[in-house]
Amino acid sequence: MRKSANLPPSPQLSPTKYVPNGALSLPARFDSLGGWASRSVSIHSTLFYIQTQYIFTMRSSTASLILAFCAVLAVQAAPLTTRNYDTAFQYDADGNELDARDYSSAFEYDADGNEIEKRDYDSAFEYDADGNEIEKRDYDSAFEYDADGNEIEKRDYDSAFEYDADGNEIEKRDYDSAFEYDADGNEIEKRDYDSAFEYDADGNEIEKRSYDDAFEYDAEGNEIADEE
What we know:
This protein has 3 domains: 17-76; 80-157, Outer Surface Protein A, domain 3; 160-228, Alpha-Beta Complex (Outer Surface Protein A, domain 3), CATH 3.90.930. The chain has 1 helix and 20 strands. It has one helix at 60-76, and strands at residues 17-21, 24-30, 36-39, 81-83, 87-91, 97-102, 105-109, 115-120, 123-127, 133-138, 141-145, 151-156, 159-163, 169-174, 177-181, 187-192, 195-199, 205-210, 214-217, 223-227. The strands form 2 sheets. The protein has a 17-stranded antiparallel beta sheet, with no helix packed on it. The termini are far apart.
């Protein structure tokens, strides 16, 4: 604000008054003519502090315009959440970011600032206390992990996969089929929408069951039965 050599002498100031402004109470001091001699805006937060002072008398009409402008600034500097068109940030009392949300994603953090969850427009990630990803969910799939970060299950829009403690796939389920595996990763059974296959320990198909047929095999893989 431009200073002037012809400023009037400072008038007697009244005690501070709180002027309601929506959800805000803004302190102001008035002179004997009803003008605004000084005013300030303070945001009660460990993160933000805004203070504005006017050093000479202003008429209330001018001050009201400035008050409205400062109220906008105060809202934008809210203590725990700031937002724009496509992003929002939330903080705890120590200034740690707790949540950042934009048009396509969101982040959540624990008390130590570790990211514990991320959500995208079409996916979500969750983490344990050590920051290990324990689950990921996509628009059409989901992944789960054990305490060591090993993927133990994946679910797609039309299928699901399960794993043992060593990360071996032990089952896969599709929209119209399912696969099961032994401890060594050998497929021991496949189930289709209209059929099922079973295998021995060596991976040989020992039985196939169709919607209207069944086939069985001996140890050498020879078909021994055909049931209709």
